[in-house]
Amino acid sequence: MERLNTRPRVVEVKPWIGTMQIVLAAICWGTLGIFSTYLSQVGFSSWQITILRIVTAAIIGIVMLPKIWIDLTKLSLNQWVGLGLQSLIGVLGMTVCYLFAVLHVGAGTAVALLYTAPIFSLVFSHLLLDERITYKAALLSVIAVIGVGMTTMGSGTEGVWGIAIGLLSGVCYSLYGVLGKRAMHHKQSAPLVFFTSILFSAIVLLFIPTTYTTYYQLIELPTISWIYVLGLSFVGTIAPFALYMKALEKLPATRASVFTIVEPLTAIFLAVLLLHQMLAGIQYMGIVLILLVALLNGLTYSTNAALPRWFRR
Of 29, 32, 69, which is closest to residue 239 (Cα–Cα)? Predict the structure, then answer.
């Protein structure tokens, strides 16, 4: 008689699922430039667009509250502080710094400065998460940043403060993922980390009078403006942040940060398609380089044994 297998079945969480979640999140983030441009054309400033993005996302995110309410009530003071820092630095801080850089050094240079994040992620992941910095992660992160820089050449103006704040946006961007990963190390769920990352920033913005005047201005505009705001908040904020936090359950923060470089590819493609912006030859070279890095990163994860020993470390 055939013996019955009573051993519990172990379900393996495949890394490629996390990779796909990161790529989808990056594509959604890449739509921010399109929605922001449309909102700018109807009269909103960069600061007002920041308000519309975060506060509207928080309002939509309230539907998650029943699911995570019990977890919220169990948080300690130190955990509230950690989640608050992740929100204020990684969401509000990154958005404000990025939009400031756009105004002072141009959108192209600002994107390049934002995507220095993989480099900062290596450092912060090592310091805060004790993740080892591998040769492969370091090399691919540097190549990725070079590729992003090539895609943004030919745009922007000089400005010391703009460059400094643009680099700070990269620091904030990297800390969002690293601090989120650290929170989940303390058994906090991805939905909880995501919800609080939006909530804290929205609460801060509710104390600013400009928030209310911005929504009064929105009420007087045509329905299409509301659609842009919903796209900015849901497609460009809620969906990608939720996907990113779920992916961090399956991937190291350093590896996740490399795949977010799909965002500028999406932004450039949509700008060409919808805004009819032409690219220079070196920008296309940068796109090819970024795609090559993403492909190499994905392939080497599953075929690590075939790589040279120095590249596997």
Answer: 29
